[in-house]
């Protein structure tokens, strides 16, 4: 099949777009409002966009509590969503009123951040502490639409990692079993059994391309 995605007349049971851009990391974003009320919400349009310096982004459909809190207070935290925290992540996606505390609703404990005010999810093995850089409003499909899509960029100013997942000086990401968003109501999980390593190829003097073994990686992303 091949269809015009602007008209979006795909003829399928549900829009397949999110099933194709998958898996997507989940930004489990915590913020604090001006009254000190905590907010926690998962965003599947989330990713890293720069590594030097470290920047992440997430996209909000409409001006939700996370976006309002970040623009007012300038800070947020992204906790890693894992297989063990999947139920809490899902509960925290509920559209509760602005004065609702999703940490309490999902029976999740908080842990203090070091560089920003919003706490991280204590049960999460890793978290990124972020300072708001910029929000960009994206053009709507129909000019004058009232939903709006907003991309929030934040600089990562602090990182927490559970030492239990650091082995031989490297983070064992697959042991954390992070989960990712697929299409529809589907998710995926990374496990030690499904993770694999491929080193970047190099161009040899004769012009041929070869792939060094993973053991030869020097820590540089080329």
What does this protein structure show overall?
The protein is built from five helices and 16 strands. The chain has one domain (about 25-190): Electron Transport, Fmn-binding Protein, Chain A (Pnp Oxidase, Chain A). Strand 11 and strand 12 form a beta hairpin. The chain is mostly beta strands and about 220 residues long. It is globular. The strands form five sheets. It has a seven-stranded antiparallel β-sheet with strand order 3-2-6-9-10-5-4, covered by helices on one side. Strands 1-13-14 form a three-stranded antiparallel β-sheet, with no helix packed on it. The chain has a two-stranded antiparallel ribbon with strand order 7-8.
Write a compact overview of the structure shown.
This protein has a single domain, classed as Electron Transport, Fmn-binding Protein, Chain A (Pnp Oxidase, Chain A, Roll), CATH 2.30.110. The protein is 12% helix and 35% strand. It contains five helices and 16 strands.
